[in-house]
Design a protein that fits this description.
Oligomer: single chain
Number of strands: 10
Largest sheet: 6 strands, mixed, barrel
């Protein structure tokens, strides 16, 4: 079989035009598939940025929440009830709201304001400038240095601003793993200051953040929270609910799926037509091999090898180009969102195998039916 594969490779690469067209078609399809799914993966990660950046193991939310990103404020007694549940090491409130920031230039900019528990500061960002203790100073806020940082005028420590007619001062600059999805800068302050500065409803707790005493205690905590009429979710479950919301309750998941399918069809049509034309042009060579004793199984193996080789070359080039574009975009485009993960590459690999399999189906039938006497009769 080794000799058969060598002949198959020579037949394939010697026709440089057809080989190049075949590889380019598959490369373009894989590039589209990986790029689109990576963008969707990046969107899902940014949508869960509050969960990822805060780092709490358990989240208590109102059971009526339909969109995990729009919270229903929790009554104060929920916090006390959760703290009394067996297995809870501690539970703290988290405030989440939108404030209108007036910059020194006179411009206005909405910002997400997260109010951290005054005692524990659970969920605080990693500081790259300043000291976390300064958050207790008068009018103190910590700004997140992400893609949206420039919308606040790239404020250094000591910058003053107004937020809902209250004075604010930047006392620290932080870094978080994930930026926001909707292009809004993020400010951190204490819980007491957040509910004082921003207009609120009767209840002010957006989430109750819970640290269990052990992983084994999580199931019991979730059951006990359910008994008082609320939901407790692990961080993974909360991220999954947010992902499911974007996948199934918005147009984002459907549109990305359709565009990915279109990319698959583009690669399939180009590679299928090109590969079939390649086989037709080399039909006499396959007939000659059959005349000198090659079996149908060996000829089928040649075609499968050619299709697989071309697909793997196109797969590698497509993934490489997509990775290069994502790296370039993240470096030079402020709001670019894309993440390549294992599932992106696995999906692209499965689809490229489908492209290879479908492309050689018709070609295999053509080669099997060819008769040596038809070749030499001409």
């Amino acid at each position: 079989m080794r000799g058969i594969f060598k002949i198959a490779l020579k037949l394939l690469v010697n026709d440089r035009g057809k080989f190049a067209a075949l590889v380019v078609g598959i490369t373009f399809a894989i590039f589209l598939i990986v790029q689109l799914t990576s963008i969707f993966s990046g969107i899902l990660a940014k949508a869960s940025s509050t969960v990822i950046n805060t780092g709490s193991r358990l989240w208590v939310i109102d059971p009526s929440v339909q969109n995990p990103l729009n919270t229903i404020p929790l009554p104060d007694y929920v916090l006390d009830a959760v703290r009394s549940v067996k297995g809870v090491e501690y539970a703290v409130p988290l405030y989440s709201g939108i404030g209108l920031v007036k910059l020194n230039s006179g411009a206005y900019q909405p910002a997400t304001v997260l109010g951290l528990d005054d005692t524990s500061l659970l969920g605080r960002p990693e500081l790259i400038q300043g000291h976390i203790e300064d958050i207790y100073s008068n009018n103190a806020f910590i700004v997140v240095k992400d893609q949206e940082y420039a919308k606040l005028g790239n404020p250094p420590i000591g910058t003053t601003f107004e937020i809902n007619d209250h004075r604010g001062v930047i006392v620290g600059i932080g870094h978080v793993p994930e930026g926001s999805l909707f292009g809004i800068p993020t400010l951190y302050t204490t819980y007491s200051r957040a509910i004082q500065y921003l207009p609120n409803t009767r209840f002010t707790i957006a989430y109750v953040l819970v640290k269990p005493k052990s992983e084994a205690a999580i199931a019991g905590i979730i059951d006990n929270v359910a008994k008082i009429g609320y939901r407790a979710l692990t961080d993974r479950e909360f991220e999954r609910e947010i992902s499911n919301y974007y996948k199934y309750q918005t147009g984002v998941g459907t549109n990305i799926m359709m565009m990915t399918f279109i990319g698959f069809l583009v690669g399939l049509s180009i590679s299928g037509q090109t590969f079939y034309t390649f086989v037709l042009e080399n039909l006499e060579k396959f007939g000659a091999l059959k005349a000198i004793g090659a079996k149908n199984s060996e000829l089928v193996s040649m075609i499968l090898f050619q299709a697989l080789f071309s697909s793997m070359v196109g797969y590698g080039l497509g993934v490489g180009l997509s990775a290069l574009l994502i790296a370039t975009g993240k470096r030079f485009v402020p709001n670019y969102t894309a993440d390549i993960g294992f599932w992106n590459l696995a999906l692209a690999f499965v689809l490229v195998l489908l492209i290879a399999g479908v492309s050689c189906l018709v070609a295999v039938r053509k080669v099997i039916r060819v008769q040596p006497f038809e070749i030499f009769r001409g």
